[in-house]
Design goal:
With 124 residues, this protein is mainly α. The chain has one domain (2-119). Helix content is 84%, strand content 0%. The chain has helices at residues 2-39, 45-70, 77-96, 100-119. Helix 1 runs antiparallel to helix 2, helix 2 crosses helix 3 and helix 3 runs antiparallel to helix 4 (100-119). The longest helix is centred in the first third of the chain and has 38 residues, at 2-39.
Length: 124
């Protein structure tokens, strides 16, 4: 049992940090979008506002999912798994659109976080 407990503990700790890193990445993207509107002209401002709002909501959601893992509660697992499955799907479209420099790291980060989220919680 000690090996299994150690595995779950490492997965849980990894999930906490990976989810917080993903949350910070989303905050960085939101800041980039906000700065991009200052230095360039937005052709579709309503779409840009929607992306900013969903980016903020996603960052908050990922952070709260990480707090669920940190508190050893189950409420963070499902959102973390769903968010990373979405990230893997988005990375597929980025890679197929020849945006490899963003798609490949997103796929790797999403897959690692997905595995950590799947194994980071156990019923006691």
């Amino acid at each position: 049992m000690k090996i299994a407990d150690s595995f779950y503990e490492k997965s849980r700790t990894s999930a906490v940090w990976l989810l917080r890193i993903e949350s910070l990445i989303l905050v960085g993207l939101v800041i980039y979008l906000l700065l991009a509107t200052v230095f360039s002209t937005a052709t579709w401002p309503s779409a840009l506002i929607g992306e900013i709002v969903f980016g903020i909501i996603g960052a908050i959601g990922l952070y709260f999912a990480s707090t669920g893992f940190a508190r050893q509660r189950s409420y963070g697992r499902a959102p973390a798994v769903l968010a990373n499955l979405i990230a893997i799907g988005v990375s597929y479209f980025m890679i197929s659109g020849s945006l490899l420099i963003v798609g490949i790291p997103l796929a790797i980060l999403g897959a690692i976080t997905l595995v950590a989220a799947l194994f980071g919680y156990t019923e006691k």
